[in-house]
Amino acid sequence: MNNAQFEYMANLQYKVRDLSAQVRAFKTGEKYRSMCEFYDNWLASKDCEIRKIKHELAEIRVQYVDVRNNWQDVIEDLETEHIKELAKKDRTIAALWRRIEKMKKENEALRKLAKERIERLYATLTELEEEKAKVKKLKAQNSRDYETSGIPSSMAANKKKITNNREKTGRK
Question: Is the pTM of this model over 0.85?
Fold first, then answer.
């Protein structure tokens, strides 16, 4: 026998011995009990993991509910604040509209006053023009006379003699 056959045969003998031990363990029920025990332990560990995961899931759900409630409170607070701001803006807008109406009335009164003053001004200007025309007419009439014009009395049409109104001082 050569070395390779020896090793092969030794290997087969080891396998036979191992398998024989396994068969004896199954026949006595020891292997079955150890397998059942292993399986029970494995199931217990998996049940423990499942319980932990369920507990974590329950905590997460509680946190989710708390967060949702907090957000609802925040949103309600923001909505209330927004409604207050809108009411404040509405009051401001109403006040501004009242102010606009008041300004319109004041503007209308000022326009009426300005219109009356303009009418008085035009009436006064018309009177002034009429008076200026009268003054001009009177100046023209007055200018025809040699007394008020630069024309000598000898050239005047009616040739009135101008009297000397000087007072004598007594001097030579």
Answer: no
